[in-house]
Amino acid sequence: MHTSATNRQPDIPFVDLTAQYAGIAGEIDEAMGRVLRTSDFILGRDVECFEKEFARYCECEYGIGVDSGTSALELALRAYGVGPGDEAIVPANTFIATALAVSCTGATPVLVDIDPATYTLDVTRLEDSITSRTRAIIPVHLYGQPADMDPILDIAARRGLVVIEDACQAHGARYKGRRVGSLGHAAAFSFYPSKNLGACGDGGIVVTNDMDAAKSLQLLRNYGQTKKYHHQLCGYNRRLDSLQAAVLRIKLKYLDAWNDARRDRAEAYGRLLGDLVHAPAPAPYAEPVWHLYVIETNGTDRDGLQAHLGEHGISTGIHYPIPIHLQPAYRGLGYRSGSLPVTERVAGSILSLPMYPELPLSGVEQVADAVRAFVTARPRLERAV
Ligand SMILES: *Cc1c(COP(=O)(O)O)cnc(C)c1O
């Protein structure tokens, strides 16, 4: 950790999970202890209760706990029969797991460029990407900002496509007043530790109002088993651990308050940075939950700014520096540089600032001061679009 002699301000991490734990340690330890004492480790009472509680939170009927967000996406696609020969549409600017989940089913991800205002799927490019093989659309509520679901659902209904929401960064966000997760056929959430709702390890869930899909998912995650040693299909071992479910049940009670705290920090950043950089502006339909606070440094050197912040003890991230279609893993899809211009441009100018509920507001000011010092000390480059 960096603290120079001239800079006596505290270092600011990108996220601080130890601060979160410190606030609820007694409850978490008690919940984990209870699972340990009862040895109710696999699909136990805590998994069942958490599935119900999280589904209710998402205004959904069913929740099926799984071992990660990637599994949640993959199994949701499988529950709707997506597989080899099929295509699924994925926004080009997302964590690569969205595309990997499609690949895991044997289907092919088709990448669509993003709306530069919201960083989510550009609905105007959607129809052109649909082919006779398209089976599914996976809108991603990236950075905690809901994708524009109504036009997506409308196109999907007309074309007979399945919509699986990737809500891995958007626990609790709302679209036109409704919770994300309740909008498509099914939705995938991740409980990776740094997500808005995070486990003490890996975890995920699929939520849905579709009873048939829920039944398939219960089989798919648990060896295709209807009852012990009776296997209806070739399933997987992708269950949510009871220990993680016990932790998540505690943390779910705090999620709304944590999301409110993120909103306060986003509001403060917006107020302090608005005239210096391109600050994120939520769409009118969106109630975001600020998983990430992503600015654009149009007119300023992004890598220089990131280095400057690092020198002042402020940790930042880039989500994501190399678009999926330019990753070696997806060379086979046949895209090249220039294929998805908005995503490619954005990858060079976005910067994620520290964002977590326990971030002191004085920390937000410290970050803003450091950004201001860098931006005002340098002549502006020609403004990009
Ligand atoms: C985190 C994340 C995933 C994958 O979740 P894991 O639990 O890490 O497998 C998928 N999509 C998005 C957008 C994510 O942020």
Walkthrough of the structure:
The chain has about 375 residues and is an alpha/beta fold. A hairpin with a 2-residue loop joins strand 6 and strand 7. The site of pyridoxal-5'-phosphate (PLP) has 15 residues, from helix 3 and helix 4.
Class computed from helices, strands and strand pairing: alpha/beta
Q: What's the β-strand tally?
A: 14
**Subunit arrangement of the protein:** single chain
Order of helices and strands: HHEHEHEHEHEEEEEHEEHHEEHHEH
Give a summary of the structure in a few sentences.
The chain is an alpha/beta fold and 385 residues long. It has twelve helices and 14 strands.
Name its key features.
single chain, 12 helices, 7-stranded mixed sheet, 37% helix, binds pyridoxal-5'-phosphate
Would you spell out the secondary-structure blueprint of this structure?
Blueprint: H1 17-38, H2 45-57, E1 62-66, H3 69-79, E2 87-91, H4 97-104, E3 108-112, H5 126-129, E4 134-137, H6 149-159, E5 162-166, E6 174-175, E7 178-179, E8 186-190, E9 204-208, H7 211-220, E10 225-227, E11 230-231, H8 242-252, H9 255-273, E12 286-287, E13 293-296, H10 302-311, H11 341-347, E14 350-353, H12 361-377
Parallel strand pairs: 2-3, 2-4, 4-5, 5-8
Antiparallel strand pairs: 1-9, 6-7, 6-12, 8-9, 10-11, 13-14
Helix pairs in contact: 1-8, 2-8, 3-4, 3-7, 9-12
The structure holds pyridoxal-5'-phosphate.
